[in-house]
Each structure stands twice: as C-alpha cells, then as structure tokens.
Amino acid sequence: MAADPALTSDVIGLTKVAPFSRRGFMTASAAVTAGYTLAAGPVRAEVITTDTSGLNAGDAKVKVADGEMPVYFARPASASNPPVVLVAMEIFGLHQYIKDVTRRLAKLGVLAVAPDYYFRKGTDLTKISEIKDLLPIVNAKPDAELLSDLDATVAWAKSQGGDTSRLGIVGFCRGGRNVWEYAAHNAGLKAGVAFYGPLIDPPNPVWPKSPTQLAPDMKAPVLGLYGEADTGIPVASVEAMKAALAEHKKTAEFKIYPGAPHGFHADYRPSYRQEAAEDAWAQMQAWFKKYGVLS
C-alpha cells in the first residue's frame, strides 16, 4: 500500500511505535489537565518536570508581520544578558513538554523562547486529539512565514536583553527539520541542534527546499541527533545529508542512537528512551559550548 502523501516522515515515525503496556500512563483527562497534547498518543505518568526556581518564565506576545504570536519563555532570574536559544516545537503545539524543555534550557543559563508559529489558524493545537486533524494545519505553514516568525522571535529576545550574538536553536521532530531550515537562513546563528528532524520533505508548494536540498546553504554548524529505529527517517537519509554537507564543506555532526525510535527524547511518549535522551541532551550542551552559545 502506498504511503499517504500527507504523512510526513516525522508523523510516520510517530505512528509506528512498538507495542507498549497501558500501565504507567496518564488517563486522557489527566494528560489534558497536566497540559499535554493528546494527538501524540498516550502520555507517560513519569514525565520530567522542571520547576521555575531561579527562573523567570511565562507567556508573552511577539510582534510578527501580521499580528502577535504567542511564545513561552524562560530565563535565569539573575542573568542580565543571557545567550538566546530558540525552541522549535513539534507539530503538537506549545504544550507542557516543549515548555519544560524551555525551562531546562533556562537552567543552563539561557533565555529560551518557544514560539507558537502555528497560531494563525486560530486553533489550539494542543487540544486536537487526532493527528489527521492536525496535519492539514501544520503542513500548510509556509517556510517563508516560519523563518520570518523565527526572526521576529530573535528580535523580541534581543529587546528583552538577550544576547543574540550568542544565538542557538534546538528543535524536535518537525521542529528538528526547522532547525536545518533556519541554519540555512540566518547567518547570525551560532549553532543548531536537530532532534530527529526530517531531512526530505514530501512535495509541498509552501516548502520550496527540504533540508537536504539546503545543504549547500548552511550558515551555522548543526548537530543532528537521530534514532536508528526511526521508521520515518531511515538512516540512509541521514547518511545522504551527511554526505551532502561534507561535499559542500559545511560543519555538522550526527549521532545515531542504536535501537532508538522517532521521538526518543519526548519523555511524555511511549517512544522515550532515557539513555539516548540523556546522552543527546549532553551532546546538545557540548555543541552549544563548542560554538559559543553556552559559556
């Protein structure tokens, strides 16, 4: 049977997770109360929760070309000019996992900002429970608009006292793809880290070039963190990206985690793999230190 063309590689990886026991998962109502999305499937009871002690964190609005975009931010309460890290979310909206990741980054000393770049549809993506209802919304997001939204987020972070000369970006699933796209767009970016971001896009008129096609245009070093057992992003596509970047003498590194599925860092999903997730987080920190985002 041919794959549904609307099913991008990040979604294929999500929908083919190995069987799991329902024990150890929240009820749907508990997951919603805790602020998680339902479209990604069952939510683990043992999610990682990062407090706001020593942080300023909350919601804000960022001026974009056609309105105001909601963002979630977190920063150290004591830092006057912290580096800035953008958090590019998955397709599920600005839910609790992405907010927690933003706080984890702030604990490392940065002003971390997660923009809700799907806000224009007027729908709270975290409240949609079926992937099939999400896809038409997120697949209609033009790359030009996305890049403009990310630029606006950087400008906002600078206006809040963030040091955008030490700018990084980290993203997960579709957000990982967006890391590659942004690294080809912004010459002011110091470094990017893509967690299992799709490298080849299905045909879509609003996505002119996939990450692999943008290999010659990369303007910042990117670390790619991928799962060997990701059913939507085969290792061969990661190797092809690595070769394309090497051919154009671009700085990038890849780590492929044996046996890890798509979404191995997402501690709220059955796909979570603690060992791979913890190592990947350490690799991210080392990468940001190496390229001057983290001191």
UniProtKB/TrEMBL annotation:
Question: Where does the record locate the signal sequence feature?
Answer: none
Q: Which residues form the Dienelactone hydrolase domain?
A: 70-291
MF terms from GO for this chain are: hydrolase activity
Pfam families for the chain:
DLH
Could you identify this protein by its name? Putative carboxymethylenebutenolidase
Species: Bradyrhizobium oligotrophicum S58
User: What taxonomic ancestry is recorded?
Assistant: Bacteria, Pseudomonadati, Pseudomonadota, Alphaproteobacteria, Hyphomicrobiales
